[in-house]
Write a structure and sequence with these properties.
alpha/beta, four-stranded mixed β-sheet, 11 helices, globular, 7 strands
């Protein structure tokens, strides 16, 4: 397989999972996992920058992007179930089972309470009481203005961000049932992720994977203290806070590519020492 990105579908149970793939399968495989209300399209500029050193796979989650979008009655939209689906997906496309995760790259992938921005105050109210009064303000997150702001807030100049990423997310959110999936199912279920933070931290302390984190200084959702907190459990974590917002893949793809390649070098050093 060349550096040209291929666009494929894999059948996983009742689902068609869309994914992007590039690079030689003999190289180390990296799975790029997108964020809430987004899709693998967010990696469109990043994939060609790393496919010379990685076999790159970037799926769309169920209910996101170009993957199947069953109703909540047909598919359980929780983060645990999505993780199970993606685990099956990796097996179906022929990736080997991971005996050990030796490296993690975090681009605003939060695992600490201190990484939650003030924006989570309203979300916590919704977790405690999912009433219409607490739900209504959160609809803004998934509005055209909210989705666009997730890309542009903290980016100077904002012209660095191409409009098609936000526009595509806006289109996906305009589809029937999308708001229920994203807000009533997944945003509400994110509470289970927060409750799982201590388990994730224990995993880091026990297994000590190499970790490289690059976060945006002005991320409106996951703030820099969450990135710095990785050092509490992994003192050797490589953490960088750069000018930017939430979607650094769009505004700073070169910096993200450099960080991922730095992780590969660190993992290669581990392999040589074993």
């Amino acid at each position: 397989m060349s550096l040209i990105v291929q666009h494929r579908l894999a059948k996983v149970d009742i689902l068609d999972i869309f994914y992007r793939e590039a690079g030689n399968p003999s190289l180390p495989t990296i799975i790029l996992l997108h964020g809430h209300a987004s899709s693998s399209h967010t990696f469109r500029d990043l994939i060609p920058l790393i496919a010379d050193q990685f076999h790159v796979v970037a799926p769309d989650y169920p209910g996101f992007g170009n993957s199947s979008r069953p109703t909540p009655n047909e598919y359980k939209y929780t983060f645990v179930n999505i993780a199970d689906t993606i685990d099956k997906f990796t097996e179906i496309i022929g990736l080997k089972k991971f005996a050990r995760i030796t490296g993690i790259f975090s681009q605003s992938g939060n695992a600490y309470d201190e990484g939650l921005s003030p924006a989570f105050a309203g979300i916590r109210k919704f977790w405690a009481d999912p009433s219409p009064a607490n739900r209504e303000p959160l609809k803004h997150i998934f509005s055209p203005e909210g989705l666009t702001g997730a890309y542009t807030l903290g980016v100077e100049p904002a012209s660095r961000v191409a409009p098609e990423g936000a526009n595509l997310d806006i289109y996906y959110m305009s589809r029937e049932g999308a708001l229920q999936i994203q807000l009533d199912n997944l945003l509400k279920d994110y509470e289970t992720n927060v409750k799982s933070y201590p388990q994730w931290q224990a995993y880091l302390r026990q297994h000590k994977p190499k970790l490289v984190a690059i976060w945006g200084k002005s991320d409106p959702f996951f703030i820099p203290p969450g990135a710095e907190a990785f050092k509490r459990d992994l003192p050797d974590a490589d953490v960088s806070i750069i000018e930017g917002g939430h979607f650094l893949n769009d505004s700073n793809p070169q910096a993200i590519a450099a960080g991922i390649k730095k992780l590969l070098r660190a993992m290669s050093e581990i392999s040589r020492s074993e």
